[in-house]
Amino acid sequence: MDRHHRIESRLREALDARHLDLVDESHLHAGHAGAASGGGHYRAIIVSDRFEGLSRVARQRLVYAALAEEMGGEIHALAMRTFTPSEWETLEHPPLQPPRRAKGD
User: Fold this and answer.
1) How far, in Å, are 22, 31, 53, 61, 64 from residue 40 at the CA level?
2) Could you report the per-residue pLDDT of 64-78, keeping only the tens digit for each?
3) pTM summary value
4) Which domains, from first to last, does the chain contain?
């Protein structure tokens, strides 16, 4: 199983993810120190009941705990958006990119 599928499987299993989009953006970071050491750069959207009632930081901690073995090795950087199923349902087309702040925010 390749790195991408291992990470995806670990997230699905650990978080009982209802929806998961995992994008390998390593090619965008060629020449970066993390890329040189072999670690990948990933962006993820994760929908899980386990995020219910948790702050954004607590959700991220769950994700990082699920990927503890991969962080700093197979994964150099992970950008994530986390949603509960009810939050996910309110979005027509959830963005993979985080929202940009307007000037002055």
Assistant:
1) 12, 12, 30, 19, 15
2) 999 998 887 778 888
3) 0.76
4) 3-89 (3.30.300.90)
